[in-house]
Amino acid sequence: MPYPVPTGSRLSGPRVNIPGLGSYFPLYADRPGYWAIEYYVNGRPRRESVGRILRKPPAQTTEAEAKRCLTARRRQDLAGDLPPVGAERLTIAKLFDLYLAERISEGIKKPNYVRLNSRPILDAVGHLLAANLQTQHCTDWILAMREKGWSNATISTNLGYLRAAYRYGCQRATPQLVAAMPYIPAGGRARRRTGYVGPGAAIQVFAAAESPILGLLWAFHYECGWRPGEVRTLRWEYVDWERGVVTLPDTKNDEPRVLPIAGRIREILEQARALRAVPPTQRRRAEYLSPWVFHSVQGGLINNRIFYRAWHKATAAAGISGRIPHDLRRSFTTDANAAEVDVASTMDTQGHLDPRVSRRYTVENLARIERAITKTARYRATQRDAAMTPTKPRQTRRAGMASGRKSGS
């Protein structure tokens, strides 16, 4: 709510009423300035300080400015451009907190992930009032982040969260929190992924794993193209040996995914099932069957830090340092493209909803481009030969009958 303006007290100055508009008055009878206005919106009184409206010290406001502000507010009310209640004090950080609270009430999966990835942009503009954000603020931040070496994808992620917060304040919040949606530029086009792990390098990485379970985890990730987090959190209850499918109920796009148990996938799962039993320890005397397909030494979920540390060691031993686990997913898309698998099947396997995402996951290679050029040239040569081959004009039946009658006569 706006800051309450004391009216009707013995400290207030004389009130000036304007029919159809409202009234304006000084807050103090014994001080110059400190003018305020009062008007009605949908039958409810609304009071504002003239100094807050004009963004100047309240002691420097005048009666003429109060009358001008009252007239402007009435004009904005008729045009539907009246600023929302409390918008003059709402900061961008507070707006984002309200947006995130709404997302949490809707059942967002990883609110901490959103907080972490939106922190850079909020550190830069979070202190600003939501009504004062300008495009130049975002542009300056983009240039500063590019100087630090940030990728376009990371910059776009931060700006996307800021854009979503403003969209919530303009369109979904009740009452409305932001009067207008500012223009928030994009961070640039995402670059095509370049990480690729070939079959030979993949075998070396799996062999260099710290434990057999980690090698099987990476092999499963490489064979099906799932996300690293989906493979790491895979449970045995999702594996149906009778039906011959693995069902992943919880995915990034909230749509279950099904993977047939066949070929190399079956071999990996059978080896993981043989390692499911965790030997007894001092704390646990009996043998323990882990609920996770790819579990830690103690039988629990593999820690994310241990997972990445082991990966970096294995890639360094295989001579491909700098690769990340997600490159196994990109390698699946690249090899599926090279094998001429249709895009729809690749999307269903990986869980992509947009074919443009699958295309970005494809790593460019000269062999595939050369094959495309060769196939196109071969097709064009066939069409050119067909166009240059002379064709005999087709004789219709009626024309043939007419020529027969002429020869008979």
Write structural notes for this entry.
- β5 and β6 form a beta hairpin.
- The chain starts with 15 loop residues before the first strand and ends with a helix.
- The chain has 409 residues and is an alpha+beta fold.
- Helix content is 49%, strand content 9%.
- The chain folds into three domains: 16-79, no CATH class; 92-172; 199-360, Intergrase catalytic core (hpI Integrase, Chain A, Orthogonal Bundle), CATH 1.10.443.10.
- It has a four-stranded antiparallel beta sheet. Strands 5-6-7 form a three-stranded antiparallel beta sheet, with no helix packed on it.
- It has 16 helices and nine strands.
Q: How many domains in all? A: 3
Q: For the report, how would you describe the main beta sheet?
A: 4 strands, antiparallel
Beta-strand proportion: 5-15%
User: Which percent range fits the helix content?
Assistant: 40-55%
CATH topology of the largest domain: hpI Integrase, Chain A
Radius of gyration: 34 Å
Shape: elongated
> Which CATH first-tier class of the largest domain would you pick?
Mainly Alpha
CATH superfamily of the largest domain: Intergrase catalytic core
Enumerate how many helices there are, as a single number. 16
SSE-based structural type: alpha+beta
Strand order of the largest sheet: 1-2-3-4
List the helices and strands and how they pair.
Blueprint: E1 16-18, E2 22-26, E3 35-41, E4 44-49, H1 50-54, H2 63-79, H3 92-105, H4 111-125, H5 135-147, H6 152-172, H7 199-207, H8 212-224, H9 228-232, E5 239-240, E6 245-248, E7 257-260, H10 264-274, E8 277-278, E9 288-289, H11 304-318, H12 326-338, H13 343-350, H14 355-360, H15 366-388, H16 397-408
Antiparallel strand pairs: 1-2, 2-3, 3-4, 5-6, 6-7, 8-9
Helix pairs in contact: 3-4, 3-6, 4-6, 7-8, 7-11, 8-10, 8-12
